[in-house]
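wait is this the right file?? whatever heres the structure
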């Protein structure tokens, strides 16, 4: 009987933790790194659980700077100010969330001809007034995720590639 009581008490402590972990949603958090007096920003996205960064993959284009560090707090992106975020369904696993971000990041890299999140496009010259900049990369990426974020750039013109996987790059 004593073992049964101890097992029951232990279960009371374990069950809330397990249930809470199962309900935790993975999120994409968007940050901006001020490049020029608040008039120009570099945009960054990280995979989080809304508390800590879950992956060291930066989802961005047009920079080689590392921003996302797995295990760090979600508000510790170096030089970054948080500006938007969205969570996947609570039933989405880590691998599914990361897979979605990786696939949409890959598609966006193809649109902008920035393989492996390069600091420059292989095709278009960086232009803050046209479609060849990190704002436009992030707008394209976030729309592909279904969580569009607003940026300052007009994104006039079109990316180097017209469509990827049946979806227009000129979003």
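ok assuming it is, sequence goes like this
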């Amino acid at each position: 009987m004593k073992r049964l009581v101890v097992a029951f008490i232990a279960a009371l402590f374990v069950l809330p933790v397990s249930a809470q972990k199962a309900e935790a949603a993975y999120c994409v958090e968007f940050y901006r790194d001020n490049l020029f007096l608040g008039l120009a920003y570099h945009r960054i996205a990280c995979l989080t659980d809304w508390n800590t960064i879950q992956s060291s993959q930066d989802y961005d284009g047009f920079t080689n700077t590392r921003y996302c560090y797995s295990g760090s707090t979600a508000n510790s992106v170096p030089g970054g100010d948080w500006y938007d975020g969205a969570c996947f369904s609570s039933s989405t696993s880590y691998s599914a969330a990361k897979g979605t971000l990786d696939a949409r990041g890959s598609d966006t890299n193809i649109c902008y001809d920035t393989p492996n999140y390069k600091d420059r496009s292989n095709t278009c010259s960086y232009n803050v007034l046209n479609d060849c900049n990190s704002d436009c990369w992030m707008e394209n990426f976030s729309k592909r995720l279904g969580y569009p974020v607003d940026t300052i750039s007009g994104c006039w013109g079109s990316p180097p590639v017209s469509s990827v996987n049946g979806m227009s790059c000129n979003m």
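Strands lie at 27-36, 40-48, 80-87, 163-164, 167-168. so i think its the right one actually
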